[in-house]
Amino acid sequence: MVKFKFSSTWRCDVVSFWKKNNEIDENNELELDLEHIPKHVAIIMDGNGRWAQQRHLPRIAGHKEGMNTVKKVTKIASDLGVKVLTLYAFSTENWKRPETEVSYLMGLPIKFFDTFVPELIENNVRVEVIGYIDQLPTATRAAVENAMEQTKDNTGMILNFALNYGGRAEITTVVQEIASKVQEGTLQVAEITTDLLSSSMMTAKLDQYQDPDVVIRTSGEIRISNFLLWQVAYSEFVFLETHWPDMNEIIFKQALVEYQQRNRRFGGLKK
Ligand code: FPP
C-alpha cells in the first residue's frame, strides 16, 4: 500500500495568514496599495452560527451580528474605492435550514434597509440584488426592491446582495432561456458564445465588473458553495479563519493585501 504524507503547504498559508491578522499593527495598513484595490470583491459570509455557538448564544444572534458586520464592511469597501461588493446572504440551498432560522434570515434585509438606506445614500452606494427574489416572502422582496429604487441614482459602489441565489440554478436558467430562443428560431447555435452566456447571467447588471476579482470566504471552510460558479473562472480566492461577525477593517484590508500579492495571468503568461 502506498502511503501519502499529507502536504499541508496550502493549508498552512491560510493559517499563517490568519496568524498574521492577529499580529497586525497599524503600520501594516501601509502594505495595501490603494491604486490597485480590486474592483469587484465577493464575500461568502460564513461562520455566523459558530460565532454564536462559541458565545452560547442562539444561531440567530450570529446572523444579527453578521448584519452589523455587513454595514461596517460596506462602508470600508466603499471608502477604499471598491466598485462592486457582492455578499452571499442566502443561497438557493439555505431553505433547508430550520424554519425559524430561515424566517429570521428573511427578516434581516427588512431590518437592514430600514436603518441603513440613508447611510447608503449618504455614501453614494447603489443596492442591487442577484437571485430569485420572486420566491422571497413579500415583505422581504418589497424591502429589497425599495432599497434598489431609493438608491438607483447613486453612482458609487454597488452593494450587490446574492439573495436566494445559486450558481447552478443561475446557469440552468440561462441555458433554458438560450435553448428557448434556439427552439423558436431567434438564435442560431453558432451565436451561443461565452460573451452571450456572461451577458445573460444575473450579474450582467454589474456591467464590466461582473466577474469578481477576489472571493473572500470567512470561517475556515475552503469551498465555493454554489457561489457565482460562472463568474469566478479567474477570480482569486482568499480564505480566512475569522468568523464573519468578527470581520473588521484590518482583516478586510489584509485580505486585499493577500489578493494584491497574487500574480493574475488569466491563462496567459506572467508579464
Ligand atoms: C452562513 O453562516 C451565513 C448565512 C447563511 C447568512 C449570512 C447572512 C448575513 C451575514 C446577514 C445578511 C444581512 C443582510 C442585510 C441580508 P452559517 O450560519 O452557515 O454559520 P456556521 O457555518 O458557523 O453555522
TrEMBL record:
Keyword vocabulary terms for this entry: Magnesium, Metal-binding, Transferase
Chain positions recorded as Mg(2+) binding sites: 46, 236
Annotated residues for binding of substrate: 47-51, 59, 63, 91-93, 95, 97, 217, 223-225
Keyword Metal-binding among record annotations: yes
Pfam entry (one): Prenyltransf
Keyword presence, Metal-binding: yes
GO terms for biological process, alphabetical: polyprenol biosynthetic process
Active-site positions on this chain: 46, 94 (proton acceptor)
Entries under SUPFAM superfamilies matching the protein: Undecaprenyl diphosphate synthase
Free-text comment on the cofactor: Binds 2 magnesium ions per subunit.
InterPro entries: UPP_synth-like (IPR001441), UPP_synth-like_CS (IPR018520), UPP_synth-like_sf (IPR036424)
CDD domains, per the entry: Cis_IPPS
A GO molecular-function descriptor: ditrans,polycis-undecaprenyl-diphosphate synthase [(2E,6E)-farnesyl-diphosphate specific] activity
EC number(s) recorded for this UniProt protein: 2.5.1.-
HAMAP family registered for this protein in UniProt: ISPT
Protein name: Isoprenyl transferase
Originating species: Periweissella fabalis
Organismal lineage: Bacteria, Bacillati, Bacillota, Bacilli, Lactobacillales
